[in-house]
Amino acid sequence: MINNQTTLFLSGFLLYPFPLSGRELSQLHGIYTTRTNVVVFTMSDEVRIADVQGKKVQWDPAQMRKIQEHPCFSEKACHNFGRCHIPVAPKCNIQCNYCIRDFDCVNESRPGVTTRVLNPDESMDMVKKVVEKYNYIKVVGIAGPGDPLANEETFETLRRLHEQYPNVIKCISTNGLLLPDKIDLLQKYDVGNITVTLNAIDPEIGAKIYQFVDYKGKRYEGLEAAKLLLSQQMKGIEEAVKRNMIVKINTVYIPGINEDHIPAIAKKVGEMGVYTFNLIPLISQYKFANITPPTPEMKKKMQDECGKYVKQMRHCQRCRADAIGKLGHDVQSCMYENK
User: Is beta strand 49-52 parallel, antiparallel or unpaired with respect to 191-197?
Assistant: First the structure.
């Protein structure tokens, strides 16, 4: 019998040697008996290498910490640990039909908004103040307000973080266009948690979601843009998983556009070895301002369907690009007032 003190094998050949909440246990996938040659270890076992379905799998405590203490990757962690988003990345290389970025906003709570954009010097000052004041902050992330990988300030900030705060969990959130191109740099700076927004694995559907894609000095539109973005996203996710990075997929639930397609996205990324899948209801704005967002009931039904293929994140707060604190208990207004 599996209980919450058991080390479990999940999709992606990871071993999880820490207590899990009841909801997390209910969402686990790929848990089998030893009759199917999947090994289950108890907490008392001192295992570093495991034989799982004929493969040698390393139990990496550092990798486990990036789940245990990251509030977006563990529902249990979100009650005990917090994150600090540093908004150093204003530029974006794609335009989604649901996205409006706002660089001087204090009232909205959604991706793409921030009180103000910081430079790397200001960001490091902010990190210093945050980690000194809030000892529960274990994660420093870059999630915008544009795409982190399209901004050189991201990599300068990550370099400094790696040097000055080697024990902080570092993460980024990206549309994935530049992920294959920048994956080596991310690995160099010990970025262990990566979120990729993937709204379609069918370019015909993607073409309805993306207005344009800018890549290597050229602007792509329509189906050509969607094909390019998808190709880069697939390559990037594959490379991240190969490097033992812990990958989360964000998919925006857009009724009438990609809703019938979402389970196929979940199935595909589950097969690729991503850790978790976050279904985000559409915020009706920009070109999708007239689309009615999915109801909570529609969202839950979709999550349950996608949960057949990949672990679901069900506690997302749709964080701002400058969010600081525990999920749902942000303190960034205090930190920016003190600057």
Answer: unpaired
**Domain that includes residue 44, residue range:** 6-59
Show the tokens assigned to 102: 């706002």
pTM of the model: 0.77
Amino acid symbol at 140? V
Q: Residue 333 and residue 182: Cα distance in Å, rounded?
A: 32
Q: Are residues 261 and 289 in the same domain?
A: yes
Q: Could you report the per-residue pLDDT of 19-67, keeping only the tens digit for each?
A: 444 444 434 333 322 233 333 333 333 334 444 445 554 546 667 766 7
For the ranges 3-7, 56-60, 116-120, 282-286, the one whose mean pLDDT is highest? 116-120
Are 197 and 251 in contact by the 8 Å Cβ rule? The answer is yes
225 and 96 within one domain? yes
Same domain, yes or no: 160 and 26: no
Helices (H), 84-151: 120-133
Tell how many helices (H) and how many strands (E) occur in the chain.
11, 17
Residues 113 and 14 both lie in one domain: no
Q: Say how far apart CA 320 and CA 81 lie, in whole Å.
A: 17
Please give the radius of gyration of the chain, using alpha carbons only, rounded to the nearest integer. 19
pLDDT at 33: 29
